[in-house]
Specification:
The protein is an alpha/beta fold. It has helices at about 20-30, 70-75, 95-100, 120-130, 145-155, 170-180, 190-200, 215-220, 230-240, and strands spanning about 5-10, 35-40, 45-50, 90, 105-110, 140, 160-165, 180-185, 205-210, 225-230. It has a single domain (about 5-240), classed as TIM Barrel, CATH 3.20.20.190. The protein is globular, with a radius of gyration of 17 Å. It binds SN-glycerol-3-phosphate (G3P) and calcium ion (CA).
Length: about 240
Amino acid sequence: MGTMIFAHRGASKLAPENTMPAFELAYHAGADGIETDVQLTKDSIPILIHDENVRRTTNGTGFVQDYTYEEIKKLDAGTWFSTKFSDTSIVALEEFLDWVHDKSIILNIELKNNVIDYKQLEQIVYDHLQKYQVLEKTVISSFNAASMERMKKIDPNVSTAFLSSKKVPDLPNHLKKIGVTGFHTKYRLLNSNLAKACRQHNLALRIYTVNRPMQMKKCFKLKCDGIFTDVPHLAKEYRKLYK
Ligand code: G3P
Ligand code: CA
């Protein structure tokens, strides 16, 4: 199998990240997968937003965990990107899964629990994925190693990945201890030794955020398992050229 192209927060160069327009554009661009970020509201509803604070990507202020779902749904999550998207709201995980579950596209659900370790996030997300029968086409990832250990206890068969933006010493053993089968890391840390080590230990290697043609070329040539890109439509073209 070649390098899978994941739309990072949806097609986030073309539409506001982690919103339905970004997911729809990713799907229509023919992305192999969609990556998105999950945090919990005050009433424990999983929603798709990258930051712990709503300030950057909505017209609100304050932390996600201080909003109820009903309150957060009223925020405008599009105008910061362009007035064209002024009627766009934050998406619940449920809403996203309802739209995506029967589509031929794989998923990477990133648990955003490395800053705020939301109680029960793993179980809540797992239950949603199970309800929509998408576990088999989903990789769950987190920068929080303890969270991935908890996820493995919920279901040892679920596909998981550890995220790190730093070099991890003794990577294969570290990942084995956590119990994950994948490693998601920054483009600048990618080299042939890392690709080789992951292959040798049967670990899936996926790279973020890969937006430039030369970066894509390197990922394709090193046969990385996946890339996360804001421009899936371009990545599809470059994969044809460089595979
Ligand atoms: O999951 C890959 C990538 O999305 C991790 O970094 O900050 O974009 O969530 P970030
Ligand atoms: Ca992410």
